[in-house]
Every structure is written in C-alpha cells, then in structure tokens.
Amino acid sequence: MQLIRSLSVGLQLTSRFYREELLAIVKDTGALLILFLALIIYPLIYGLAYKKEVLQDVPVALVDLDGTATSRQVARMVDATEELQLSRQVPSLKDAEALFYSGEVNAVLVLPEDFERDVMAGRHTKVGIYSDASYFLLYKQSMMGALQAVGTFSGGVEVRRLLASGLPMEQALRQRDPVALRTSLLFNPSGGYNSFVVPGLLLVIIQQTLLIGIGLLGGTDRERGRFRFAVPGALHKGGIVPVVVGKAGAYLSIYLFNLVITQVWVYHWFSLPDKTSWLPALALMLPFLLAVIFLGMALSTFFARREHSILFVVFLSPLVLFLTGLSWPASAIPSWLQTLAHVFPSTTMVPAWLRVRTMGAGMEHIGPALSFLLLQALLYFLLTLLAYYRVARRQTRQS
Amino acid sequence: MTANKEQGGAHRPLLRVLYRELDRIGRHRVYWFLSILGPLLAFLLVMNIFAAGVPSNLPVAVVNQDQTALSRQLVRMLDASRIAQTESKWSDLHQAREALLRGEVAAILYLPKGFEQAVLKGEGSTLDLMVNNTNVLKGGLLQSGIHRVVSTLSTGIKLQVATKKGLAPELAYGQVYAVGLDAHVLFNPYTNYAWFLVTALLPLLVVVFTLLGAIYAIGMEIREGTGREWLSAAGDSMLVALTGKLLPHFLLMLINVAVMHFILARHLGFPLRGYWGAIMLAQVLLLLAYQMVGVLLVALTANARLSLSLGSAYAMLAFTYSGLTFPVMGMPLAARVLAALFPYYHWMKVFIGQALRAEPLRTTVLPLSGLLVFVGLGLLCMPRLKRVLLSERFRHRC
Question: Is the pLDDT of residue A226 over 70?
Fold first, then answer.
C-alpha cells in the first residue's frame, strides 16, 4: 500500500516536472533557438552547400601540341568524362597558366608533340595533367577524370597492338589485362558528398544542440538560485528521481519530434541513402538520445552560468564530428584520443547508425554498439542523479 | 598647454576602459578559457586527431577461393601497400558481407577459383572488388590503392609474356603500357586529406573563439547592467569603450594566431609563396571582422545569450564554405552567395591565394575589402549598441 502510494506520488511529481520543463523551454528564446530551430537550419544550410553531391565538369584548358586526329581523340575522351570539361583550348602552356591564375580553368591538359607518332610506333608516351591541389576535391576530380580517360585510351591502343600481332579480338581483350578488376562501390555508388557527410552530421547536431540546450536551461536554474527541484522532500530517499526523469522526458519528447525533421524530412529533401529497417534504428536511437540527455544534465550542473554551456561545448563540435570517424577514419586517430572520445555517445552511435541507415545492417550487426550505448545511458543516468543530489544538498544547506 | 592637457584627457578614457577590462579578465577564469586556454587546447586536439596524416592499413576481407601461388602473391602485395591490410578468415562472400555490415572490414576482394590457371593460360581473369563507399574518403583511397596493386600485378604478367615473345624490355614496356599520365600536382605537395582538414579547422577554431569571446565580453555588460558604467569610463564614447574592451581580447587572440601559423608553417610545412604582409593583414582583418560581427549581433538582439547562440551557429557554418572540403564553385548559386556572408570565406581566399598559389597581389583586393565590409557593419551598429547599453529595459531580456 505504502509502495503504491509513493509510486503514485512519484509519477505525479514526474509529470509535474515534465510539464514545468517544457514550459520553461517554450518561454526561453535562446533554448528554443538551439533545441528547435538549429535542427532545421543547420541541415538545410549544409545540405544546400552539398546539394549537387559531386563536383562535375571541372573546367580544363587544353594545350594540344600535337594537333593530330589521335591527340584530338584523347581530348574528346577527357571532355566526355563526368569529372572534366575542356572549356578552352590555347596554343601554349604559358597561355594556359594565365587562364589558370585568373581562375577560368582549374586544370590544364597537355598533349605532347609527336604524340600520334609515338603511339603509332609502339613507344610509351605520356599525357600531362596539371591539377590544382590547393582545393582537395578539385585535385581529386581532375586526377580521376584524366586517369580514367587516358587509361581507356591506352587500353584501346594496347588491344590494337595485340590485334596487329595476329591475335583474335577476344584473346586480345583478355591478354590486354590478364588480371582485371571489377569494382563495385557499395552504398554510395556515385560518391555523393551529401550522402557521405549529412547522415552523420545530423547525429552530431542532435547531440551538440542537446548538450548546449540542456546546459542553457540548467544554468538558468542555478543562476536564479532556485533549483526548481529543490522542493521539500527532494532529499528523501529517491526524491531526486522524479525531477531527473521528468526533465529528461521533456527533452526526449522534443527530440522525438526533431527526429521527424532530421531523420525523415531531411532524408527526403536531399534523397539521402536509406536502407533502414525500423527495429535496429529505434534500438540505437533511444539509448543514444537518453545517453546524450543525461550527459547534458550532469554537465549542466557544472555550468555556473547559462552562457557557459555554449562557450564550453560549441568549440568541441567540429572535433566531436571528426572523432566519430565520419569523414576521417577512426583507425587513423591515436588510440588514447579514441578512447577519450567515447565520452560522447556520438562516437559509438555514428558508425553504427551509418551501418543501419546507409548500409541496411540489422540487429545482428550492431550488438556491441548497442550494448555500449545502453550501458552509457544507464551510467549517465546514475551520474545525473548524483550530480543533482549534490546540487540540491548544497542549496538546501544554503537556504 | 590647454590643448595638450585636453589631449591627455582624451587618452585617459581609453586607458581607463583598458584597465577595467584587464581587471575583468583577471577576475573571471572564463575569459582565460575563451582567449587562450580554449584555442590552444583545441589546436592540440586537432593536431592529435590528424597526427597520422594519411589513413593506412584499412581492413580488407579477401575471399580467396583460389589458394595458389599467384593469389597468395596478390595478397602479399596488398599487405605491402600502405592503404590495405588483408584478412582472410572468411571463406565465402556471404560471411565477408556480414563482416562488412558489422563494420569489421571496409572492402571485400573476391579471388575466384581457377584464377591462377586462367591467367597462366593467357585467358585472363576478373577479380571482384566491393568497396564500402559510405565513407567516400576511405572508399576512394581503397579503390585507387587496390586498383594500383592489381594493375601492377597485371602489367608485370604482361611484361613477362611480351619479353618471352622476344621483345626488348623497352619495347615490351611500350607494347603493354601505351599511354601513361604525367601528373603535375600544383601548389600543394601533400595531397593528403588531413592536411586540408587541419588547414580549414585551425582558423575556424580561432574564428569561433574570437566571435564568442567578443559577444561574451560585450554581452555581460548588458546582462549585469554595467553598460552605463562602462560607457562613462570611456567618456561616453562608444568607439573608445569598444576599443578598450576588445583590444585585450584581440591581442590575446594574436598569440593564438601566432601559434596557429607556427603549426601551419613548421609542422604542416605550409609554404609561403606570395606576400607575407597580405596574409597578416587578412589575419588581422579577420579577427576584427569577427569581433565586429559580435558587436553587430549584441547590438541587434540586445541579448547576450541569443547572440551567443546565433554567433556559434554562424561561426561553425563557415567551415562548410571554406571550399577546402567541397569547393564553393561546385555549389548551387544560392550557396555561393551565402559563402560571401562569412568573413572566413574571404580570409581563406587570401590565405590560399598567397600562401599556396602565389597569386598576384591584386587578387587580394576583393577579399580584403570583403573583410572590411564586416568591420564597417560593426561600426555602423555602434549607436544602436550605445542605446542598448543606456537603456534599462534590455537588462531583463537576458
């Protein structure tokens, strides 16, 4: 009987703290901006920047010193690649350099003198490509485009030579490349930049906005010197639990709503790869959100001022992003730093989430990540209880 | 004599505000974090994250159904390459695929039964490579790395066949490898991705701390209702008040900037092909521009916390528009216009242009004036900031 009564009181208190927290968030422009608006604005601006997914038709200047049918064929093949476009033809390398510095072209293709003659004579020859490596993707695209076009041309020449030596076509094709490689790029075949960066970025945005937002709200409580949960009885056995659960529930509700924006709408808008089955997705997302929420709540008790949560958390955002291994392979990060990075749930979540959403992994593929996140959520829940208890005791002592 | 005295009096407010600010900085540890400890800590973390330079030894599952001398030679060659590290514990494709989905391997190479026999008979054989391209960077490195290894093997076999036929080695080479690519990589000898990321990240962190520091320093005056006192210390001149307040933060930031340039030049080997003066001018203007964006945000919102929220988003978004990851020229028109709204974008143009590309000086005029526009915008907001500081009602908005 006693147990039922204290349970019902606990539930009543929990729902009261839940409603109070929601109200506090709605009344607070700073918190609203971080907890709602940021989750719409950030993905949109990032998505807009990478909307075209791949860099196509990088403008290239052609310097054709040979001027024969063969050299023109190579030029046409380069022009036909997805990566490159021959936008100008100039007589000398010097003219090409001027175009390059003025920013009109980003690469220069040079076909050497006697190109045709060398090809006909069976001598090895080379096509020159000058690429701009001051911007990474420009460099990568011009190299890939040139490599592909020249490789194809070279293959054709080699096959013709074998044919000339008297081999039948089929055998010539086989001998041209005794060990051929057939490559399939899985899950993001076109190498799209949005599909690569945005899915993981969304999770980091979810985590960082939660940490900052909860800090903003928690800091407010402390500043005003009246921790709302410091009600009489808060220090009795288990008295702190309804406060923590109620508040966490409020954040969780908001972010379940935000999930619709970030995980459904944004995916739809930018046609991000999606092979998700709902069970592993949900199984990962809930402990992730809870772990982040409790980490945020525990941290918030350390911020003396609401502004401090921004000051201390914002600068970590790009670092946290790279620590997830999203774009920089985690295996290349020193192991002590990798271990430390697991303080942030995103470090565990992002790789597992990408496997589920982009690659279509099932429950059987995410076991270790899932148990880690569950454990983390539980650990941070206990940590939050401890932190809140500490603050409540200090404040009751003061008053 | 009187003129001299007046002049001396005009200087005193600036010193007064300066001392007042130094006192504030000394009393609150948070300023220490914002202007020195935070940036240096962040630099340290960035340098450690990217310490490896190039990713290496990414796990590749080899499903070897051939198990002959040739297939084992290929596996050894893969292991010897920088990028791949083979694992052969999976006997069929299904198992290897499961490992891929568990995230244990990044690619699968399938060597079919009868591989060696087909190659020796001159029939040729085709290997299947499946690369997880979820991470485009890793996928690209693996694809090109493995491709290079396989084509080395293939070319070697062709050469052997051709020399057996009695061709001289030189002619044989021309026979099996007709046209190569002579790649000239301009401006940047290190074509590793980490180099680009670090180059974009370090200035971004400087920008984040500069902007948040300026907003916090000014915003706290509104929040604590000390704006009137601050202004009167400055002899009621907003310009003097701002100069005195922001100068110490600016100078501390210069220390971080010096450390950053030291890392870029010494540790990353960033060249300096153009004009040092242009880079430094852009650097100073970048700091000023972001401080002035801080003035603008606080003046317009009259709310420290809201300014900090907006400022942090604004500072962070600049990263995307540096062009170092995805070039701005490849973005949609709307995004290209948006890029110009970030001082960071203009700074990066000067920095890359002068340090790497040795562009003529006149190319810096446009981006430098772009930075000046932001400074000007901040100055235009000074009267509004003054009104905010003098009015009581904004205090309660915080």
Answer: no
Do residues B332 and B363 both lie within one domain?
yes
Q: Does A166 touch chain B (CB under 8 A)?
A: no
B172 vs B275, higher pLDDT: B275
Optimal mutation site among B209, B309, B319, interface A, most CBs of chain A within 10 A: B309
pLDDT reading at B246 higher than 70: yes
Per-residue pLDDT tens over the stretch A237-252: 567 888 888 889 999 9
- What residues 65-124 of chain A have any CB closer than 8 A to a CB of chain B? 74, 101, 106, 119, 122-124
Q: Are residues B337 and B387 in the same domain?
A: yes
Do B65 and B33 fall within a single domain? no
User: All domains of chain A, ordered by start, with CATH?
Assistant: 2-51+190-398 (no CATH), 58-176 (3.40.1710.10)
What residue of A is the nearest CA neighbor of B147?
A181
- Residue B184 in any domain: the answer is no
- Give which of B84, B32, B87 is closest to B61, Cα–Cα: B87
Predicted local distance difference test score (pLDDT) of residue B325:
74
Tell me if B182 is assigned to some domain. Answer: no
Which residues in B lie closer than 8 A to residue A306 (C-beta atoms)? 305
CATH number at residue B149: 3.40.190.10
* Domain extent for B66: 58-176
Residue B183 covered by a domain: no
Average pLDDT score over chain A: 85
What are the two backbone dihedrals, phi and then psi, of residue A345, each rounded to the nearest 5 degrees? -55, -25
Same domain, B135 and B279: no
Q: From residue A245, how far is each of A14, A48, A250, A392 by CA, in Å? A: 6, 38, 9, 16
Say if residue B100 is exposed, middle or buried (CB neighbours under 10 Å; 0-12, 13-18, 19+): buried
Same domain, B153 and B231: no
B382-390 and B193-223 are packed helices; what angle lies between their axes, rounded to 10 degrees?
40
The reported pLDDT for the residue numbered B1 is 36
Q: How many domains does chain B have?
A: 2
Q: Say if residue B332 is in the same domain as residue B208.
A: yes
Q: Of residues B314 and A327, which shows the higher confidence score? A: B314
B178/A124 Cβ within 8 A: yes
Q: Do A331 and B180 touch (CB under 8 A)?
A: no
Q: Is the ipTM value over 0.95, yes or no?
A: no
Q: Collapsing DSSP states into helix, strand and coil, what is residue B177?
A: coil
In a domain, B2, yes or no: no
Return the pLDDT at B245.
92
- Dump pLDDT digits (tens) for A378-391: 999 999 999 888 88
Could you read off the pLDDT of B20-45 as tens digits, one per residue?
Answer: 889 888 888 889 999 899 999 999 99
Residues B45, B64 within the same domain: no
Residues B341 and B362 placed together within one structural domain of the fold: yes
Tell me what percent of the residues of chain A surpass a pLDDT of 90: 20
Return the pLDDT at A277.
82
**Residue B4 pLDDT level (bands cut at 50, 70, 90):** very low
Query: Using 50, 70 and 90 to split pLDDT, how confident is the model at A223?
Result: low
